[in-house]
Amino acid sequence: MKAPRSSSIFLLLLFLVLAAFAWKCGFFFCEKKKSPVATSCAAQKNISVIGHKYFKQSNANQSNGSASLQARRTIPIVPAPLDHLSDQELQEFPGGTVVESAQVDGPEPGEKTRLRILKTNFKYPLIRTEEVVDEKNNSVVIREEMVASHLLVTLAEGEDPQKFLKKMGSLATSIVKVNSNAPLYRLNLLSSKLESLPEALEKSTSATAGIGEPDFLSHLHKMPEKPLYKSDQWAFWPSHYFMPNYDGHSTWYQYYRPDANDQSYYSCYSGINAEAAWDIRTDASSVIVAVIDTGIRYNHHDLAPNMWHNPRPSAAGDLYGWNAYDDNGDPMSVASDLDPYSGHGTHCAGTIGAYSSENGQTMYGVAGVAWKVQLMACKYLGPGGDGVRSDEITCLDYAINHGAQIINCSFGGYSWSYAEYEAYKRARDHGIIVVTGAGNDTRDESNSWLLYPGSFQLDNIVNVAALDPWGYLATFSNYGGDNVHLAAPGVDIFSTWNSSDDAHQRMDGTSAAAPFVTGAFALLKAHFPKESYRQLIARLLHATDKNQSLEGKTITGGSLNIGQALMGPTPSDRDLYTPHESDIEWVNSMNQNLDFNKSKIEWSDYYWNIDY
User: Fold this and answer.
1) Which of the residues 134, 293, 330, 386 is marked catalytic?
2) Alpha helices (H) in 364-509, listed in sequence order
3) Is residue 293 flagged as an active site residue?
4) Is 344 a known active-site residue?
């Protein structure tokens, strides 16, 4: 009589143990989708990069009593399908397919995390996407894109990369140095399955005293271009400027006339006052400006006279700059009917420094802020305007190593990267000014929506919003009273394009606004060669045109006035711009924490940037 009862108890206990084991392994919360795509089911800590970061930080908060996680991002897009690419993704990766997918519980109740491996035509074909989805609203609250086949590792000083590779065991196949400026390596993984990258990241925390992190994707600040038509470049006009109407400008006039009943004047309320600047200086031929972007059509008639020439080109033939996307010395911007963004870098270069002679004659009717300057082409963005952080860092270090004094960065990504931060800090240590576009997502960058590199709290970075011709913040522009410094013209900007050697195009976006500030810094650097990067930045920021629509939306509450900046007094110490105190404390504490000899850190600890 007792034996059957004991057997029942034993079976019950066995069932409970097996159930607990199944729950531990994640069998109950992994939802497979019926599709031709292979799906995975694994423990959440091993399958989700976002989950890995979240739970690491959550546990840290509980142990040290710090505040809760920073407010989550709210992205007004629907989740991407598990078994195929969304329409937006197909624009970035034409012909892409999903080769593996899974859905697991999200970091918070009521959320799911969607995981996919995409096969694309990108430089690194296998792309990993993760989306945290609010099930109630069916909206994405976090989205990450990263390379699935490798991760980035910043090794500790003096650490042997081959010994680190050996510690990674069968997870990795090789390790390759990204560039000579930092102990940053690309660790190639044996597998690109959903569990591979999180597993390698977890292993790297015990295999090195340094930092392992995904190689995140970043993107151009994309905006649709308007049809090509010729007219004056309104952005160079003075603020509050009225120009009589005359034949030849009717298209521009009809498009921009704010008063339909007044047909005698154009009106422009947000130009950069370039004429006043050009009365003082037009020549910045001693200044090297790097354009990190899609490359430059360096044979373009308006740009060829102002292209930088490498005095000591390498065997790769890097005469005009570097192509990190294709890993060669030819940064040509190649036109493609399938890629409407391929001319992005050429457009930026034209605004910065399309050539004009001493008497103001342009080659084809378009002028740059600096009539003479040295334009260095650094290509890291490929088809669709996508690139990875490791290639961006390669371009950045190339510019540092070859004497660039100003760098234009009209791109961004919403994932914080230690390796990327360190690269921009190296630029600061060399006294280089970096100008970034604030982004085109109509977001307030003062809270949780931080776009990098513009939101790095480094005093050599100037972050730029976009203005329309009437002096209002452009409807698409990001903004932020804490980390967007000023605004510049960014609507209907006419500049050079890459479809031919005499092509021009109009473009909207903070991508088009940032180059005006970059060109302004080129003139300032040439005119005040002994001033430090901090003095030049202070000079430009203190000379902005104050604008009520920008109050609280930018640090200065104003827009670019290059004429006033060139005429202004030398900034005093009290005029120098520095990040606000909370940012300084955060950066100082982070730098202290990143001392490899003092403490061990992980990239996940900085993803949420709690002190921002």
Assistant:
1) 293
2) 389-401, 418-429
3) yes
4) yes
Pairing state of beta strands 406-409 and 241-244? Answer: unpaired
Task: Give the chain's end-to-end CA distance (angstroms, integer).
Answer: 68
Active-site choice (333, 511, 549, 559): 511
Please check whether residue 536 is in contact with residue 521, taking contact to mean a CB–CB distance below 8 angstroms: yes
- CB-count exposure of residue 123 (10 Å: 0-12, 13-18, 19+): middle
Per-residue pLDDT at 101: 95
Distance CA 293, CA 331 (A): 10
Please give the Cα distance from 246 to 268 (Å, whole number). Answer: 16
What pairs with residue 601 in β-bridges? none
Name the one residue in this structure whose structure tokens are 């493609």.
Answer: 336
Q: What is the 8-class DSSP label of residue 67? A: P
Of residues 423 and 594, more confidently modeled: 423
Chain position carrying tokens 């209907």: 492
The closest of 455, 463, 468 to 420, measured between CA atoms, is 455
Q: Which residues contact 5 (CB under 8 A, 6 or more apart)?
A: none
As a whole number of angstroms, the distance between CA 468 and CA 491 comes to 5
Catalytic-role residue among 52, 221, 300, 344:
344
> Quick one: what percent of the chain has pLDDT higher than 70?
72
Residue 350 in this model has a pLDDT that exceeds 70: yes
Which amino acid makes up residue 511? Answer: S
pLDDT at 378: 98
What is the spatial distance between Cα 163 and Cα 602, in angstroms, rounded to a whole number?
19
Phi, psi of 593 (to 5 degrees): -65, -30
Per-position DSSP letters for 154-194, written without gaps between them: EPPTT--HHHHHHHTGGGEEEEEE--TTSSEEEEEES--ST
Query: Which residues, other chains included, contact 384 with Cβ-Cβ below 8 Å and sequence gap of 6+?
Result: 91, 92, 93, 94, 122, 339, 341
- Asked if 44 and 102 count as a contact pair (C-beta separation under 8 A), the reply is no
Instruction: Quote the CA–CA distance of 396 and 235 in Å, as a whole number.
Output: 28
The structure tokens listed for 291 are: 């354009």
Would you call 270 a catalytic residue per the annotation? no
